[in-house]
Design goal:
Blueprint: H1 3-10, H2 23-37, H3 42-48, E1 51-58, H4 71-81, E2 86-88, E3 91-101, H5 106-118, E4 124-128, H6 134-142, E5 146-149, H7 153-157, E6 171-174, H8 178-189, E7 197-202, H9 206-212, H10 219-224, E8 228-231, H11 243-251, E9 256-261, H12 263-275, E10 282-287, H13 292-296, E11 306-309, H14 326-337, H15 343-362, H16 368-376, E12 379-382, E13 385-388, E14 397-398, E15 403-409, E16 415-421
Length: 440
Amino acid sequence: MSPKEKRDLMQPATGWPAKEMTRRKFLHYAGALGTAVAGVSPAAIAASEKVIRIGYITPKTGPFAPFSEADDFILAQVRKAVEGGIDIGNTRYRVEILVRDDQSSPDRASNLAAELINKDNVDLMLAQVALGPNVAQQCELNGVPCISTMGPWEAWMFPIKGNPATGFKNIFHFFWGVDDIAAVYLDIWKDLPVNRSVGMCWSNDVPGNAMGDRKLGMPPYFSKAGYKLVEAGKFAVGTDDFSTHIQLFKRENVEIVTGLFNPPEWASFVKQSAQMGYRPKVATIAKALLFPAGVEALGARADGMSTEIWWTPAYPFRSSITGQSAKQLGESYVSATRRAWTQPLGVVHALFETGLAALKASGNPNNPKAVADAIRTMKLDTVIGHLDFTSSGIKNVSKIRVAGGQWRINGAGKPEIFVTNNRTAPEIPVQRPFELLKSV
């Protein structure tokens, strides 16, 4: 092998300068170099490597498992769609999806990401970030393109020292931001016959700290809109005692309660409120009211509770993978699993839509820079709506559409969520008017 051939093998195939060569790339090309020295040409190596490996890290078990409840169904759909391979340029690639359970542990998520990068040589990483941006951080350090979702973009970007004006080289995210959710909540409250006193409860974790921050979170938007803010401090994740918060809300005549809770925490708050005789007129809660099972556990008290909506089968959008409408996706999930649809069904489905679209648009899915560049310029219609990584005003981020919704208990005693407020997403139709809580 001539010196020029060695240089060509080590650099131009990827477009990455030598000074940016990561450990993963070095091992990959060192292996290829060794094979070439043994008598196999680089062209033969390239011809034999027609595989795309996609890593997907998800909290399949542990306290965040509800976010992954629909994973098996989505993965079956995606694998069926790519079972014959996908054509990119003049080459057909076999697609492997390597799924790893982070067990709801940030440290485990980070270690799994490193393993998928360095041992499995994934071409693209997909991840949920309800736990934090650990997977994305590993990908940025190792030069592997990554798309993530399922958490406010602020809770993804700022913990790893990102700057919205400059972004990152390899990692991308789509979801709503704190300002989007604040706008939804204000849209829900704006015409209600209640006082303008808001009691806030934020969990002391990454998303809770992002949403509850007094300078960069939701509180400044509420204050600017003229609401009086009442807060007893953030609560520890997993707590079951909210008596301090409830006593303060009663004393300050708080009629609107908001915040970020896990389902068991919100159940404790609701139970204690009833025991202490506290009856707010509005409860607009993030995260805890996301999943039907958690809402159903609240019984009749859930009737009228409100939250943001990331996705429902009522959304007027279609999948770029299966061609299904949002309604058809929801119906097929219920039919296949005998479980109620959940909002992450649409969002995780869209995660795979963006991943496959990026790989196809790259021209060379084994070239990390080409894949990253394809994501950076992506505009894609998905089952959750239009994603655009070029115009959010935040580098490497696409915003998603969010509406306001309310849970109602149907005649069979089951909770159903309806779109009640759509000023923030007028293309999503309102299904019924908002009503004050019946009881809490």
